[in-house]
Amino acid sequence: MLSKSEKALIAEIWERLAPVAEDIGSDALLRMFASYPGTKTYFAHLDISARSAHLLSHGKKIVLAIAEGAKDISQLTVTLAPLQTMHAYQLRIDPTNFKLFSHCMLVTLACHMGRDFTPVAHSAMDKFLSAFAAVLAEKYR
């Protein structure tokens, strides 16, 4: 699905973004909540207002999990196994939300990276985030 050069590009992008994980993750979550208000129901117990400690913390966790998966994409299923179980059996998140979030993450990356978010980077990241969402949803089958 991803070429060797795309995998290297994805790993490099996420390594570069890890230091600003809170900002990227919280921005993507806010974008998802604004675009798909139904997704807020899973966060009713948290303060999900802009720049809240809860939103920044959760956003950071998401981005760091994505960055970890980007290190070795061929092992994505193994890397995400604990998150698959938690989201499917404990949190019971509707797996459609993973796709919604990946679309919001693409927009956030485009906004954050500017000209560095080239068509090649966009295409590679779209493939990777689609795979990420699909792997998270595997436990639902």
TrEMBL record:
PROSITE patterns reported for this sequence: GLOBIN (PS01033)
List, alphabetically, the SUPFAM superfamilies matched: Globin-like
Where does the source fall among the domains of life?
Eukaryota
Q: Which GO terms describe its cellular component?
A: blood microparticle; haptoglobin-hemoglobin complex; hemoglobin complex
Gene3D superfamilies found in the cross-reference section: Globins (1.10.490.10)
Q: InterPro entries given for it? A: Globin, Globin-like_sf, Globin/Proto, Hemoglobin_a-typ, Hemoglobin_oxygen_transport
Any GO BP annotation: hydrogen peroxide catabolic process
Molecular function (Gene Ontology), one example: heme binding
Recorded hits in Pfam families, A to Z, give: Globin (PF00042)
Q: Any idea which UniProt keywords this protein has?
A: Heme, Iron, Metal-binding, Oxygen transport, Transport
- Domain Globin: where? 1-141
* Family membership: Belongs to the globin family.
**What's the protein name?**
Hemoglobin alpha embryonic-4
Natural source organism: Scophthalmus maximus
